[in-house]
TrEMBL record:
PANTHER family: ALCOHOL DEHYDROGENASE (PTHR43880), ALCOHOL DEHYDROGENASE-LIKE 7 (PTHR43880:SF7). This is Enoyl reductase (ER) domain-containing protein. Its cofactor is Zn(2+). It comes from Beta vulgaris subsp. vulgaris. One of its GO terms (cellular component) is cytosol.
């Protein structure tokens, strides 16, 4: 048995101490796992735009000091009481969305929204609302999205953890912990994109490109990418994007008008991947009447509102839906994505634009802020 089992672990973590300020590499203390919890040695973590959003918030759900990060993979170091699903040495992936496997929603094929541990932007552990991180002075360090992966060791609830095939390299597996899975899942599970269909994607960041990848896998024949950055079209081609619309190129027509003309009535499936109410409305306006479906993936401001015509909703027969984590159930669907990658059906390598040491995490933040990175993978132990 490891000498660390049941005892606190001292390790390095990148601590966000103020909104928008560089993270500080510090020695932290990670408590042993409690009931239904697992302590994980993080191998690789990647930087997601949601980390930037939380890092920049001065008010709740922004909390400081905090350990950010939620895309990661690692090895089980030890388990708490009543943990039967995991054992020391398992190759695992933490996921921000719970999958208890026992509630009515987790058992139902149509939902991935756990009722036992419903999603919330908590800064502590999900069951008892206490923390597992302190610094050497005894100061509490808050959690992020039930994962907190910007640390060499973390504690995760069993409902937020899934075992994965160790054949997949950790610097690729971590991408499936949030962004890529969300995009691919939105096309595959939420929208159920059909062969021969037309898709429009608003925003070609990592999630938008992952939607394109999912739509490509599902057999969509036309994938229209919408972005104000013209260089995104060349990147998008790698993931199946066939057409590109830059809203800045046309001062007389809205993006929805352009897409409606391009598609002779609208796309079968539209995806909003930016987090702007106005873009959700544009996406809804250019999905085809009768069967068109608009899927919202972007994270907007907390109090943002949509404005849709009730007449149009009734008379045009369109669907508008959200998709948290792409509709995926982590404990059953992640294994499929891993297999797709190992079988060369799913592209992951193309999402990784940078890899670096954990100590260079602030450089990774700069690259994402500057729009120069899709996914930067950080190796935690070098």
């Amino acid at each position: 048995m490891s000498i660390s089992v049941g005892k606190p672990i001292h390790c390095k973590a990148a601590v966000a101490r103020e909104a928008g300020k560089p993270l500080v590499i510090e020695e932290v203390i990670v408590a042993p796992p409690s009931v239904h919890e697992v302590r994980v040695k993080i191998l690789c973590t990647s930087l997601c735009h949601s980390d930037l959003t939380l890092w920049n918030l001065n008010e709740p759900p922004g909390y400081f000091p905090r350990i950010l990060g939620h895309e990661a993979v690692g090895i089980v170091e030890s388990v708490g009481e009543d943990v039967k699903e995991f054992a020391k040495g398992d190759f695992v992936m933490p996921v921000f969305l719970a999958n208890c496997g026992e509630c009515g929603d987790c058992k139902h094929r149509k939902s991935n929204l756990c009722s036992t541990l419903p999603f919330k932007l908590s800064n502590l552990m999900p069951r008892d609302e206490t923390g597992r991180f302190t610094n050497t002075k005894g100061e509490t360090l808050y959690h992020t999205l039930h994962v907190s992966s910007f640390t060499q060791y973390t504690v995760v609830d069993v409902a937020h953890l899934t075992k994965i095939d160790p054949q997949i390299p950790p610097n690729r597996a971590c991408l499936l912990s949030c962004g890529v899975s969300t995009g691919v899942g939105a096309a595959w599970i939420t929208a159920q994109v059909e062969e021969g269909s037309t898709v429009a994607i608003f925003g070609l960041g990592a999630i938008g490109l992952a939607v394109a990848e999912g739509a490509r896998i599902c057999g969509a024949t036309r994938i229209i990418g919408v972005d104000v950055n013209a260089s995104k079209f060349e990147i998008g081609k790698k993931f199946g994007v066939t057409d590109f619309v830059n809203p800045m190129d046309n001062a007389t027509k809205s993006t929805s008008e352009i897409i409606n003309e391009m598609t002779d009535g609208g796309a079968d499936y539209c995806f909003e991947c930016v987090g702007m109410a106005s873009l959700v409305e544009e996406a809804f306006a250019c999905c085809r009447k009768g069967w068109g479906k608009t899927v919202v993936l972007g994270v907007d401001r907390p109090m943002s509102k949509l404005s849709l015509s009730s007449h149009d909703v009734l008379h045009n027969g369109k669907t508008l839906t959200g998709s948290l984590f792409g509709g995926l159930k982590a404990k059953s669907d992640i294994s499929t994505l891993v297999k797709w990658y190992l079988d060369k059906k799913l592209q992951l390598d193309e999402f990784v634009t940078h890899e670096m040491k954990f100590e260079d995490i602030n450089k990774a933040f700069e690259l994402l802020l500057e729009g120069k990175s899709l996914r930067c993978v950080l190796w935690m132990h070098t």
